[in-house]
Every structure is written in C-alpha cells, then in structure tokens.
Amino acid sequence: MKCEEFQILIEDYADGALAEKASSLVNSHIADCAQCSSFYQELCREQQIYARYQRDIETTPLFVVIDRNPNQPGTSRSQP
Ligand SMILES: [Zn+2]
Question: How far is the CA of 7 from the centre of ligand 1 (A)?
Fold first, then answer.
C-alpha cells in the first residue's frame, strides 16, 4: 500500500473508527514510516486542540454569568 492510501486510513485511525485489523496495519506502518508517523501525530494534535476548543465552548456560559456580576458597590454589603 502507498503512503497516500495509508494516510486516508490514518484519519480514521485517529478517530478510532478503524477496524482492529486495519488499525494494526496502520499501526505497524506508522512505526516504519516517518512521513506517516508525523502525519498521524499532526492529526492527534489537531484533535486535542479541537477537543479543548469544545470544552471551552461548554464552560464559557458559566464565566459569562460570573463576569456579569462584578462586585457592585453598596448592593451586597451595608456600609460600616
Ligand atoms: Zn507511509
């Protein structure tokens, strides 16, 4: 198989969508081929960035709610 063909499989492999047999094929090729190995690592890095980005979107509304009520003078505490 050519590297181009492997790289199509590697995209599925990074998603965890590859069947066991095909993923072991990809796995052994990545071990041998520097080009496909770096291609796979690049994919993994993108996925991590994407996963972190999604988490940020999920947590953002909470921060917005907190930021909307900064310490307002005179409302929560009476003057001494
Ligand atoms: Zn290769």
Answer: 7
